[in-house]
Amino acid sequence: ALILDLAIPSSRIFIDDNSRVVGKESTLQINLYKPPQFKDCPQAKIEAKLHIVFAELLGETSITVTIPIANFTPQVRHYHPRADPDLGFTYQYTKQEEQFLGPRPEEVVLWVSNDDFNKAEAACAHFSDYSKCTTRVIEKKVESKTEGWGQREEAFNVLLIMLDPISRLHFQRTMPKTAKALNKMGFVHFGNYTAIGPNSGKNQAALYSGMLLADRDGVKKHTDGGKWLWDRLQDQGYVTLKAEDGCVENSNMLKSLDPNTTHGHDLTRLFCFDFDRPNCLGPDLAAHHLIEYGRDFIATYENRRTHHDPFVRWAAFLHFIDTHEDTMVLSSMLDAEISSFVLQIGNLASLDNTAVILTSDHGLHYGPYYQSRSGRKEATQPLLYIRLPSSIQSAENMKVLKKNAAAWTTAFDVHETLLSLTMTANDPGGGRKGLSLLKPFPEHRMSCMGSKDIPSSYCALNQNVDSADSRSHHGCTKMPRPPNVLSFYSDLPPSKRTTFPLDCSPMSNKTESVASLTSRCQCSTSHRGWYRCVEHPWGADEVHSKRNPQEYFALVKCRGQKMSVDTRVTPHEELLSSIRQRKLSTS
Q1: Sheet of strand 314-320, all strands in order from the earlier edge strand to the far edge
Q2: What is the predicted pLDDT for the residue at 74?
Q3: Burial class (CB in 10 A: 0-12, 13-18, 19+), 294
Q4: Per-residue pLDDT at 427 exceeds 90
Q5: How do residues 387-400 score in pLDDT, each as one tens digit?
Q6: How many whole angstroms separate alpha carbon 556 and alpha carbon 522?
Q7: Are 317 and 242 in contact (CB under 8 A)?
Q8: What does the pLDDT read at residue 225?
Q9: pLDDT of residue 52
């Protein structure tokens, strides 16, 4: 049985479709080269029904929820685990002529990321059809390493922004503002950065450990004895953050990674609090919450470094998973948020001692576009932009970095570069596979085949050379139309979706005769989509038939044979009659 997930709203809620042609009976189609205009999150249109903040009360953390009431003083509730209800701080509401002016206590749902409010960094409240969430960063007393700092004074802060997943071309199509911001900020683009595996597990393991992933189901324990980047950073006294902007509870990769970072764990359940539309949390984009948390993290520890402890170093890894969907358009929702964040980095942190990296782990590796050769090629072409700290942007260093940008690089190399920037490569080599992008690359890395960590089939795709893998798909560049952004197909596992059969076996030059059409054939016309057929759409007379006269072309595709394309011009009887009458009147 096919079950429609009614939790998915219609495209009219999601996309600004004012450009649709009135009277056209069709679903909204997407032009990948002109991203659609997205509407605000649905709750953004609702007049704010509550506000939530962390506050101090009785010497401890409380959570204050303010509920506006028309024509009356707003109702303010102070949630405090130690407050006596008789003090009036908890579950306060007012009566007016026997009517409750505000909601009853049970009508407001509160979620806090930690049972101990003093340790919580995220909280949400929900009332009626409105949710509001807030985050904060509690400064942790991490002991900075001062021993030998004179030799390690070139250890830098790191901000890594991960778009999971997106290809270079997909990024250019859907995030032009961010691309412009990166160029303005002086980032170096690595045009031959290539994936080393088909999924996030292999590529993120390479990025964060510098080694091959040995077991997809056990990322944390099986990287051939390698050490995770955040563990290295912690050993050197870094304050760390890793978080992502989505509710993902069933990923074996994420559970296995379980990054040992100073901050970020409180956001794991935050994005699961309320689902009103993909990419939204209450009235705000999920990405907005993650960026605000990242801003607070950077500001907190930059303030500590500037005013209290000059040896403090921090590293933030912000993952945006909005692009993990096969319509290939939701990435454009990130453009304004991330471009603004990139341009403001200089106001948050000192660019003299901060390295900034924007990257992805791979291109989209499923869905309709992936069925084409171009789609499979883009899946191997992740994104990489790097901005070195200003203090080391010497002419020589930039010359090396830009030359390496033309080489064939992988996540292994980014990992080694991060170790160099943070001075944490205390076990040179250590079985790791990468080369630091800050040092000249050997000549053999100027070719894809010379980069042994890139699969040969990926090189064949990128250099338009046939391989055993690419030959098996040769000629199959036709693909099904992408699903509507919010059709229920986008909520189904890719393996369960219905697609038009893509037959890549050798085809004969002769189309099967109409008389022998079987259920192996598919038909379509100018006015009808694909359907199984046992005869030509216009019947035995084909182009001479008067059946369905409004249709002007017909397609017939039978398995193992080339597609038959028929066109016809159907006479307009009223126009012909008018012409005849005119001729008679003039004769």
Answers
A1: 188-189, 384-387, 354-360, 157-163, 314-320, 239-244
A2: 77
A3: buried
A4: no
A5: 999 999 999 999 99
A6: 6
A7: yes
A8: 55
A9: 92
Residue with tokens 């980032």: 187
Vertex 86: Cα angle to 85 and 87 (nearest 5): 90
pTM for the whole structure: 0.75
Question: Sheet harboring 51-57: ordered strands across?
Answer: 51-57, 60-69, 72-79
Tally the C-alpha atoms within 13 A of residue 450's C-alpha that lie toward its C-beta: 11
Report the distance separating Cα 364 and Cα 359, nearest Å. 14
DSSP 8-state secondary structure symbol assigned to residue 140: P
Both tokens assigned to 165:
């997943």
215-229, 395-409, 412-426, 557-571: least confident range = 215-229
SS3 189: strand
Q: Report the distance separating Cα 568 and Cα 551, nearest Å.
A: 8
First to last CA, the chain: 68
Residue with tokens 């407050």: 83
Q: What is the CB-side half-sphere exposure of residue 297 using CA atoms within 13 A?
A: 28
Residue with the two structure tokens 């953004």: 44
CB neighbour list of residue 532: distance below 8 Å, 6 or more residues apart:
519, 521, 522, 523
Distance (Å, rounded) from C-alpha 51 to C-alpha 65?
A: 6
What residue type is 563 in one-letter code? Answer: M
Asked if 296 and 304 count as a contact pair (C-beta separation under 8 A), the reply is: no
Residue 503 has pLDDT above 50, yes or no: no
Q: What is the pLDDT of residues 255-288, one digit of tens each?
A: 556 688 999 999 988 988 886 677 889 899 999 9
**Per the structure block, which two tokens stand in for 203?**
């590529």
Q: Would you say 160 and 357 are in contact if contact means Cβ atoms under 8 Å apart? A: yes
322, 164 in Cβ contact below 8 A? no
Q: Is 528 exposed, middle or buried (0-12, 13-18, 19+ CB in 10 A)?
A: middle
Cα 325 to its chain centre, rounded Å, is 8
3-class DSSP assignment, residue 203: helix
The pair of structure tokens assigned to 254 is 């994420």
Distances (CA, A) of 259 to 177, 241, 340: 31, 9, 27
Tokens linked to 370 = 């992936």
Half-sphere exposure of 366 (CA within 13 A, CB side): 14
Name the phi and psi angles at 93, rounded to 5.
Answer: -145, 160
CB-count exposure of residue 569 (10 Å: 0-12, 13-18, 19+): exposed
- Distance, CA of 219 to CA of 414 (rounded, Å): 19
User: Per-residue pLDDT averaged across 413-420, rounded?
Assistant: 95
Question: For residue 30, how many other CB atoms are within 10 A of its CB?
Answer: 19
Alpha-carbon distance values, 454 to 376, 408, 445, 450, 498 (Å): 15, 9, 11, 9, 32
* Structure tokens, 409: 């690089």
Query: Of 417 and 103, which is predicted with more confidence?
Result: 417
Q: What share of the chain is helix, strand, coil (3-state, %, to 5)?
A: 30, 20, 50
Residues in the chain: 587
- Enter the DSSP assignment of 171: H
